[in-house]
Write a structure and sequence with these properties.
185 residues, alpha+beta, four-stranded mixed β-sheet, 4 helices
Length: 185
């Protein structure tokens, strides 16, 4: 827009210069003072044209630099899009691998579920859905593996006193606590 404005200004000044030069060449100005004033105006118009053309060159240089930067940015966008496509393909492949592993784990889980009470399975599935997939956590060194909080003395005594087949839940995160040899009980 700036270049178009300068181009229009240059054309306007050139038209005026041509018109005034034609009037002088045709002898339409006979008064010596008017002729001198017209010649001074012609010099002024030449200076104005020179300044406008300098401004036009400056704008063209800035435009060229901006177009170079735009080209570089477009190249960068293209490279980024290619990287994104590669990352999306990798993600999709890994998701497919994980889906396959999930099917395998669920197939292995099937026999393990036989003989478990239905209320316990329902509780496990409910906790798994609400706790980000981790419904049961091992107790290690008097710590719940789900929330990573230490068990207080009263809780440790409650766990020790419970029967081996009792379902114990963490008071903090509500996950099912699994006692192991590393529990520290």
């Amino acid at each position: 827009m700036e270049q178009e404005k300068i181009d229009a200004d240059v054309e306007q000044v050139k038209v005026r210069r041509t018109r005034d030069q034609s009037r002088m060449d045709a002898g339409q100005i006979t008064n010596p003072k008017d002729l001198q004033r017209m010649q001074e105006e012609m010099v002024s118009l030449e200076r104005r044209i020179s300044h406008l053309e300098d401004d036009e060159l400056e704008v063209m240089e800035r435009l060229e630099a901006a177009q170079g930067m735009l080209s570089a940015l477009n190249d960068q966008v293209s490279q980024t899009e290619q990287q994104l496509e590669g990352l999306v393909a990798t993600r999709d492949q890994k998701l497919g691998d994980l889906d396959g592993q999930l099917v395998d784990v669920e197939a292995q889980r099937g026999p393990s579920l036989e003989g478990l009470p239905e209320p316990l399975l329902a509780l496990y599935d409910k906790l798994r859905a609400s706790k980000g997939g981790i419904a049961a956590a091992a107790v290690r060194q008097r710590r719940c593996g789900g929330c990573q909080l230490g068990l207080d003395a009263a809780e440790v005594e409650r766990i020790r006193a419970a029967a081996d087949d009792d379902v114990l839940r963490c008071e903090e995160c509500s996950r099912i606590m699994v006692r192991t040899a590393e529990s520290g009980l």
